[in-house]
Amino acid sequence: MKNIKQENVSNAESATRYSRRDALRLGGRAFTAAALGIPLAGEAVLANAPNAAPNIEFVANGYRLINYSTPLFAYDAMILLYDAEGKYDCNVYFMKNGRAIPANTTTTGTNIHAYFPLSRLDEFVSTLRNEGKVNVIFVPSNGIFSISSNEEPLT
After folding, report:
1. What tens digit of pLDDT does each residue of 17-70 get?
2. Which three-class secondary structure state does DSSP give residue 105?
3. Alpha-carbon distance 134 to 144, whole Å?
4. Which residues have a Cβ under 8 Å from the Cβ of 9 and sit 6 or more positions away?
5. By the 8 A CB rule, do 146 and 72 touch?
6. Whose CB has fewer CB within 10 Å in the chain, the N or C terminal residue?
């Protein structure tokens, strides 16, 4: 990926410019559309606050699905995502129907707590089972959490 240049957007932000192609590749791998401003042509600008916490990114090599049957928790299922060393770095909670979805957070700067409605559980598990290794990204500055497949060739 070619980083074209770093420039100041305002006193509170800085920006990195990418070619449109690189920005779209980043969008699939490391950032979501909300984090990238992708113009119709030319280049994209990624704006970061200079004192923002860095993104947390890792490749999940394994997972553990836990289903609960108790009124004690606000969630019915939880998935633990493990990195290459076998350490779990992420708890993904699937909230009971009708429950509010909390904001995604991080503790200790590295462990992610992400929340989804229970209706997304099958889709999430399907991605983990069918994709093998997946990229996990959490952007602390805006709370965006995502998992994505690795780059796959089109046939």
Report:
1. 444 445 444 444 333 333 333 333 334 344 455 667 788 899 998 999 999 998
2. strand
3. 16
4. 15, 45, 47
5. no
6. C
At residue 32, φ and ψ (nearest 5 deg) are -95, 170
User: Side-chain half-sphere of 11: how many Cα atoms within 13 Å?
Assistant: 0
pLDDT on residue 49:
57
With a threshold of 0.70, does the pTM exceed it?
no
Q: What distance in Å separates the CA atoms of residue 141 and residue 26, rounded to the nearest whole number?
A: 17
DSSP assignment of 62-82 equals: EEEEEE---TTSSEEEEEEEE
Which has the closest alpha carbon to 152: 136, 124, 129, 133? Answer: 133
Cα separation of 131 and 117, whole Å? 21
Residues in contact with 153: Cβ distance below 8 Å, sequence separation at least 6, in sequence order: none
Distance in angstroms (rounded) separating the CA atoms of residues 7 and 17: 8
